[in-house]
Amino acid sequence: MHFAVRDFLLSPVCLVPGLPRFLIQEIPGEPMSSAEKISVTIPTSREVRSRIPSQQRIKVLGLGMASFGSAFGVWLISLVLLILVPWWAKLPFGLINGVAIGIMFIVGHDACHGVLFPYRWMNRLGGKISLFPSLHPYTAWTHNHNGLHHGFTNIKEKDPGFPPLNLEEYQALSPLGKWLYRVNRTWYGLGLLYFTEMWLKWEILPNASRCPKKWWAYQSDRLQVILFALVWIGGLVAGALWMEENPIWNLFFGFFLPQFIWNWLIGFIILQQHTHPRVAWYSESDLPDPSYYHSQVQATPHLFFSGPFRFLMRNVMEHTAHHADTTIPLYRLPDAQRELAKVYKKDMIRVIWTRKGFLSMLKTCRLYDYAAHCWTDYDGTPTTGCLLLPIHGAPKPKMAKA
Questions:
Q1: Are 71 and 103 in contact (CB under 8 A)?
Q2: What is the dihedral of CA 196, 67, 304, 10, to 10 degrees?
Q3: CA-to-CA distance for 39 and 33, rounded, in angstroms?
Q4: Which of 169, 191, 249, 252 has its CA 20 to 30 A from that of 82?
């Protein structure tokens, strides 16, 4: 794991509201008075996790089966009904099917962490089955998400979770590449963002550097996903022929539309889990690297959605608690989130989701300056203040004497 717990040395001009637990830099040759020194210990992973009662890590078979069974049942039933109804009535079932794929993926995400069920074999089997409708190989997702995303959160060269480009990288893109990057970071392009930047690059067509180390297991899982997709498509075609309909309707409403819906939904969720005007991103060249506390607690926002959305999405946006401790099942995340907030509320980014705030985030968080540590527009104009101390020989600010 990458979580080396290190102290951050921040310049006073770069402090961000809500991120107070850091040491202020002392300028060599200019000793700080006792009034200027701040002695704060950054909480360790053990300390943070100790704030969450142990009973919230208990896995309950019935709750896991209810989460898995309800999502799988809605997906399967909506698909069957879609085949049975005439073409003009297929749209609502296609929409329901797409949302069900998203819910199954969230349930599968928990199983891949080994916390949905009390038994390891059930988590592995449930994880594979839950990921099939979203066409994700089990081995690839556990490698990319469990290993890289949670081990190197918000570090550009490692974390596959939509790391922003800097100005130089953006300007080096082709005209088509620039257009695609811009569209991906709009409200209507979030499905394309997930499809191109996650599914294609990391799940189904990874290059050698992104491919899981368990190569044969990955190839087997990818083949199973391909076979599942072929059976799915074949079943839709067979159903259309049996109903004496044109297969194109079943393929569109029963496969392509659900995939479009699910990709947009997961893009909408994942982008907001680690992209915010107060969240910093890092490069491997950053010194110091982010501590566990900063990357998993302070840089993992908690977005408050309405009750129905939280229920539908299985508490997936109670994300600080999940990153603080991945052994907490989805059905216990709200309680764990509340326990963390009791202690670390001032350090956590807690936002009530609104459409206006969401669109503002997309406008603010376009490119990232990894040297100055701030978000910028496409022309390099900063859209936020400095989130961390400038690195690599940046001039050190003089501190006013007390």
A1: yes
A2: -60
A3: 13
A4: 191
Give yes or no for a cis peptide into 288 (omega within 30° of 0). yes
Phi/psi of residue 282, nearest 5 degrees: -130, 160
Residue 386: count other Cβ atoms within 10 Å of its Cβ: 19
Cα gap 106→72, rounded to integer Å: 12
Q: How far apart are CA 262 and CA 135, in angstroms?
A: 11
Q: β-pairing, 374-376 with 367-369?
A: antiparallel
CB atoms within 10 A of CB 56: 20
Q: What is the enclosing helix (H) or strand (E) of 108? A: helix 91-112
d(CA 93, CA 236): 13
End-to-end CA distance of the chain: 41
Here the tokens at position 76 are: 């399967």
Cα distance between residue 174 and residue 187, in whole Å: 22
User: What would the pLDDT profile of 316-366 be if each residue is shown by its tens digit?
Assistant: 999 999 999 999 999 999 999 999 999 999 899 999 999 999 999 999 999
SS3 of 213-264: the string is CCHHHHHHHHHHHHHHHHHHHHHHHHHHHHCCCCHHHHHHHHHHHHHHHHHH
Length of the chain counted residue by residue: 402
All residues at 6 or more sequence positions from 228 whose CB lies less than 8 Å from its CB, including other chains: 132, 135
Q: What is the pLDDT of residue 400?
A: 32
If phi over 0 gives left and psi between -120 and 50 gives alpha, with beta otherwise, what is residue 182?
A: alpha
Quote the CA–CA distance of 39 and 179 in Å, as a whole number: 47
Q: What does the block give as tokens for 242?
A: 């049996």
Per-residue pLDDT at 343: 94
**Per-domain residue ranges of the chain:** 59-274
Q: Are 321 and 25 in contact (CB under 8 A)?
A: no
Phi/psi for 180 (5° steps) reads -65, -40
* Pairwise CA distance, residues 218 & 220, whole Å: 5
Beta bridge partners of 98: none
The answer to whether the pTM exceeds 0.90 is no
The backbone torsions φ and ψ at residue 358, rounded to the nearest 5 degrees and listed phi first, read -60, -50
Low-confidence ranges of the chain (pLDDT < 70): 1-40, 287-288, 389-402
